Amino acid sequence: MQQLIQEIFLEAFSNSYLNTLQDSAVLPAQDGRLAMTTDSYVVQPLFFPGGDIGSLAVHGTINDLAMMGGNPRYLSAGFILEEGLPITTLKQVVSSMAKTAQDCGVQIVCGDTKVVDRGKGDQIFINTTGLGVIPQSVDIGPHRLTPGDRIIVSGDLGAHGMAVLSQRQGLEFSGNLRSDSAPLHTVIADLLNHHITIHCLRDLTRGGLASALNELATAGPRTMTIEESRIPIGEPVRGACEILGLDPLYVANEGRFVMFLPPEDVDKALSLLHQHAVSQEAAVIGEIGVTPSTPNQTLVTLQTRYGTHRILDLLSGEQLPRIC
Amino acid sequence: MKYVDEYRDPKAVETLSKEIHHITRHPWTIMEVCGGQTHSIVKYGLDRLLPPEVTLIHGPGCPVCVTPIELIDTACELAKLPEVILCSFGDMLRVPGTHEDLLRVKAQGGDVRIIYSPLDAVAIAQANPSSQIVIFAVGFETTAPAQAMAIIQAQRLKLQNFFVLVAHVLVPPAMEALLSSPENRIQGFLAAGHVCTIMGYEMYEPITQKYHVPLVVTGFEPVDILEGVKMVVHQLEEGCAIVENQYARSVHRCGNVEAQRIIDDVFEPASRNWRGIGSIPNSGLKLRPAFARFDALQHFHDRIHLTEATTSPSSQCESGRILQGLMKPSDCSAFGTRCTPDHPLGAPMVSSEGACAAYYRYRPESIAKI
Known about the structure:
A: four-stranded mixed beta sheet, 8 helices, B: Rossmann fold, 2 domains, five-stranded parallel beta sheet
């Protein structure tokens, strides 16, 4: 085990905090409030078009920090490995994780590895905890949602979920289905540095756009209306969802977010968003309406291309592919 | 996306809506047979683009919804057997049996796998020679050819561990059963485009004549559905009752003859119990004697022990009347209160083609406020 740690993890993640190999990493005091989050990654297959479990374990956690306006600094990394996992696979994942962390400007400062019996795991599980610093003036959250706020999505939806699903099931769709997995902290920092007033942010992971809007509308509580024709969805995702009977608004993303901001900041925000590769296709999709007056009131409404309206509700359980 | 976008074009939808308003003179009740069409109608709000005289009622064309409870219980019992891998389409997993659904059996350790094509189950059988693979064969004529193909493939490969729990149903006998019911109020049909892609539409011609109901073979996109409605309304206003084909880009009068031959090679018609509706003669498929060794019911008959209660579906569920178009989901007192997707009383609340699921998902305002 010691050899595994030395040869694989230390070599890949090497930094002055980790290399001491003490019981805890001792970090310098930070200037600002701390944001902390944790997430576990169990994706199968481990490698998929556009990413792997290692890059995902970095992106997913730093994106959770970024959604609070936090500037990600440090990560922990816990690995649960299933007996029989080829060392080459582990090395590939670890090296992808190290490269992703480096690209994102975060350090992996502590970690843990456990090996479980064959059949007790599924090759590799990774947990990462992230620590970030929130600048003093930043206040982002559903409590700031205001009637009239515009709703922006940062790019086309559903690519991660459909890329992983089609890889997992061996479905061959024509067209290029690649995960959108990407770090979001740089673009958020850019918006904040340019004094864009961001009221609320949410990354569109499990459950997709529809679930994120419902969670925020409930937390507000606020009503929201979005327009179907303004929601960016790529052709390969539309095609794959069409065949499987899935709704792309509920499909997971790993490099997309929804943002709420006052109308006067929209133009400036969009021009900044369009300068970043990760949010080149950002678009205004709707706005916040009145505060709900009764507990049963519909919170999120979708205006269809035909001018009719339907409710965009939370899904119960996962979407299941249909029969015919 | 070609072949989809042009059938979702807002301008075409608006024009068709106006044309239907223009030609409608009398009140008409039209049934869309297929659950896929029901979902399109409710999802896009197409019924709200129709004149008040035209009422759409939702038909029994959801294979998951009409699968009898005893077969779901049987599937659950099979999935609990340690040697069995039960393969099913995703929609079946949440459909409630008497005591549980397949998702719960899976959570409790049963090996239940979601497949996308029956041929996936053949591959699973090859890869797991020490397990017994059972495929839960659900669906209308649309999925029957792929199912038959999987069985032929299993025979060619001489697989000894591949079995089928057959729950296939057929559309025309069910339509006749609805039309001959004393409660019938259907005046015209939108027939299910995908079923007709396989089977063609010749067999509907005697039905339209006998019951004097117009029938239009219709696709699934907004433009398809409104065009189908327009064609039915036109016939009704003119006093005609013939079969027309709106979905000509996919459907020919004779259907897909090769697919029909494969179905016929493997299966033969049999009476079938429809959940909530009852037994309809010749409305299902069973394996022909030459393929009887693949029959899961026969192979496992001494391993499955269904309790007495399994034959009585929830008395609170009105799915039978909903599947016959005699009431809408929102007319049911349990809808959205005692019956939700998390705690369904019947299959239409959880199937992706179920009418109750469509209303719950897209029209929660129709839930009775307490």
